[in-house]
Prior knowledge:
It contains 14 helices and 27 strands. The radius of gyration is 23 Å and the shape is globular.
Amino acid sequence: MVAFHVLHAVVLFQVAAGSPFVQMEPSTPVHDSTTSSWVKGDRVPGDQSIFLHVAVRVDAEKLAELERVFWEVSNPQSDRYGMHRNIDDVTQILAVPNERVQKISQYFMAAGAHQTLTSPNRDMIRVTMPASVAEAALQTTLHTFSHTEATDLKIVRASHHYYLPAEVAKDVVMVGELLQFPSVPAQNFASPASQGAGQWPNDCTAAGCKGLVTPGVLAQRYKLPNASVANSDANSMAVAEFQGQYYKKTDLQSFSTSCHRDVTVAKDVGGERQSAGVESELDIEYIKAVAPEIPLTVVYNEQYSLLNWANQISSLSDTPQVHSVSYGNDERQQTSREYMLTCNTAFMKAGARGISILFASGDQGVCGREGCGIFKFRFKPDFPAGSPYITSVGGTDFESTPPTIGAESAWVDSGGGFSDDFPIPDFQKDAVAAYKSNPDANLPPQAYWNGSGRGYPDVAALGGTKTSYCVATSGMFQGVAGTSASCPVVAGVIAKLNGLRIAAGRPPLGFLNPFIYQNPSGFQDVTSGINKASRNYGFTAVKGWDAATGWGTPDFEALSHLVMAAGTRSSENLVV
Length: 576
């Protein structure tokens, strides 16, 4: 299994008020206005209330134990497969001393914070305080940043590095997200002046859906049953939404009526908004298009914080078993290694509890959101798509032109490649080796990518601009494309498979990748296309696993048999 990299803080001292302070996240670049899509605005008013998430240090041996449990309950070949843990179990594994938590909380409260809330696992502390207090406690200045394209989005970030007293810093991994700037998903819209090009019947009554991907297209291609499969009241699924991306019930009702699927939201976490967002409505309409019988939760947070979201869902006692997320960023794009490793810990906590997390692989090909550069050309892998602890979903198009329901090819803009930060995990070593030795792969020059990194995506689904999805949004139907469409579709398939297992008294699938790589026959291989976007190089789809489409797209009929056979070595399976 992949080894978890324990943090060793680099201590840099700055004299402030006669006391040593430690620079936190020293390797993280500060905001660069020449390359960032975020523009620094005014300084945050001193009395404005803000909240930050403090990641508490977990001892190295405890992290190692969490990782051991994560792998053993996730591997179908393990005798303990499916024996997932509950919140209290994870808290005991991490064993964060109360004294450590109290020291950190007392520091911020003494500085003038309004409140500190400790997570159930005691490895995260949410601090609410006035901006002026945060600036003094962290030795930095806070500014409001706005996005150059989505101008209504405002976030608070530090304008330079931040610091903590040495005695406190030794027990803190990072304070998020002071230095991290989120990406804003760029939607790929079909031309409003023309219909989709797909050569298939329009199974939605809305004329605007003609030639676009609809629920019926997905059902035919991915062999979904006409009737609801076995399910359980204990089964559930969720989508994550951020930055004003919400939904209007009237849009969901319009899609339900036109496309003959029950698209309703069973539960909201994070409050309701009245504004519609095409990202959110795409996620909701198509995860429910695939799995209409399974209750859906929308987890909404105004600020995009991957770390906060991951800890949020793993702290819910009734968290859904499957989570689809259509957000990400480049590994190197204003994200520290401390941040990625802390997120990985949260992913492992979720996996140990039997939660499946799926992330879109990105929509900019191999060069990512930052671009490959000119003078030092190099691919930019995605995070968290390149994390070994989640399942990454790439995008495809139908191969034929004009498109007909049949074989798929890699979408030219689909994210995929190899991580620069995480090594190849055991579950994919053979698959990656086979790909790199395949002469049909026609691999790009080695100088552009990391040959020893974790490969992604793991699987794929329709998402390309040649086969846009018909989405009801803002009172109309329009075509939308991207791996933001692919991810909820695969998540819906996984939720349906969980329904089969839970109804039969089996545990949910949990972290998916060991099962996926041990059962490639459950996926329809994609053997054409290349994800080079507008560049000269990319990764080519070939027979077997590849760094453009993973193992391919779902075959529900095949998967429904494979998931019921998974974990037969276990003497017993406990769902907690």
